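Deliverable D5.2: sample structural annotation.
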Amino acid sequence: MNINVELRAKITFVISITMAVVAIIAVASLLINIGGISIFDGQEAVLHVIDWVIITIFIAEIFLRWLIAPSKLYYLRHNWLEFALFLFFLLQLLLFRKLINIFSVTKGYIVIIQTYIIITLLLKFIQGSSRIMRLNLKPEQLVLLSFLFVILAGAALLKMPNATPSDKPISTLDALFTATSATCVTGLILRDTGSEFTLLGQIIVLLLIQVGGLGLMTVTTSFALILGQSMGIRERMLIGDALSSQTLGKVSRTVIYIVVLTLIIEAIGATALYLAWANSDIFYAQIPNPGRHPVTVLYYSVFHAVSAFCNAGFSLFKDNLMYFHNHIAENVAVTFLIISGGLGFGVIVNVLRYDGFYKVFGSLTDAKGLRFARLTNAKGLWFKKRGEKLTLHSKVVLITTGILVFVATILILGIEWNKSLSEFSFKGKLLSAYFQSVTPRTAGFNTIDISQLTSACYFLMIILMFIGASPGSTGGGIKTSTLTTLLSSLRAVLQGKQSVEMFCRMIPSDVINKALVIVVASLLMLSVFAFILLITEEGEPIKIIFELFSAYGTVGLSAGLTPQLSAIGKIIIIITMFIGRIGPLTLALAIRRRRETGNYEYPSESVMIG
């Protein structure tokens, strides 16, 4: 079909507008069907007809775009999945017709139709995300809006009747709080995740955690790359800025690295937890419907693995992980996931490519005599032909993380030895102290009762929560590298040096200024929010401050006050979790108006300090 450019553009515009309206109707239909929303009697039949109309329009769009495409072969190559999905859908219907005597026609068709609609909508969303990136938005604005979108969508999904038990509906504010906590990978909860959300509600929370941990842009971009779509220069710049990737040519590879690394580490953690829980009587005693079913164990393992790696701290157990305080396997598996997620993806890749790591694993051989490193390199994942050196950033993050974990373990042991840890065995005390030295900086899992800690331990954990995880990770806080940079700056001042140095490298002044701005802005914001909470909330001041810093560090540890928060308190914590996830500097840059600066400087004059 030969169509001129102007007519093709008009047809494409009409198709796009039509599909946008159809997509909205499709989403509404799915929410009503899956969410159990009842509007009028007999709506199932009406919705079934609407679903068929939607599918017909989806299929018509595929072939219409193919007909007006300048190159039919090019369009097929770049939209092969839509055609494959249509053929698969057609085969499923034909197969279903043959099995008509075995399955329920109505239910079966609904499952097939809704599955097709969901997958098609996801493809449309992924394709639409690339168009959004072409808008005149700053990277910081894109990050802010993407998190807001996920939070609001998550809150709407959690409000669905089928997301919570019929006798325990959730309020709009509580749904927004939970969605924010999950998306910002915090873990503060107003209701028990395991018993006060249905399986659908729990899966929604899990998806919010995964998307929030990776970032919506990373998720959509990775799927787009898998589907064969290319990234434009502006898209590379936006994603590269969000991921702190300095080389545009490596942005696509970085996105794939992040997703693959996440899936591999979460799979390792889930496997470890599955093996630990498969025959555990303590595990089965905690789940609501006891029954040694492998699928149940797998579900709990995957949920906690994702929650741990994304540093969310959400647990399906009513008492979190307190019953496993004496179990080495669970403690090691969960802290491995938490630390891995808190290091940052760049650090993990750098470690995997580190020369020393390469030499150790390069010496290993498999059954066929192939070197592990060479085999891995052949698949183009982590190793190069020669190992890399650790970057300054990796050294700072790894050493700071190690010091914080070690020092915090010793301090918690000393403070709580005869207090909250008094009834534990020596192994239990050691494991609990180690576990709670890891979680305050990133994830809100706990193996001891946080509400029973001493004020000194609360204060220690507040410091750890304020420091948080590392840049490029799934955690919050001011970040470990920010702390190290400021301490190095302090050392330089005390030593009378003009430059700040770390590991024989000089730190640029703009990095030091950025670190200072982050700390000062964070403290000012937290001071204002703490003042408001101390007025609106009842409870011990140290516990109120603890909840606030837990929200800012996207940690999720609670002294037991979160479920008792007033409406104002919930809103303050929601805002704090959001700012803690995206960062105060990102927020400031996102809302800052562009101003032209003149090419001049004012004369300098000194002021007295200290």
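Annotation notes: The longest strand covers residues 500-502. The beta strands are 500-502, 505-507.
The annotation will be released with the project's public dataset once the embargo ends.
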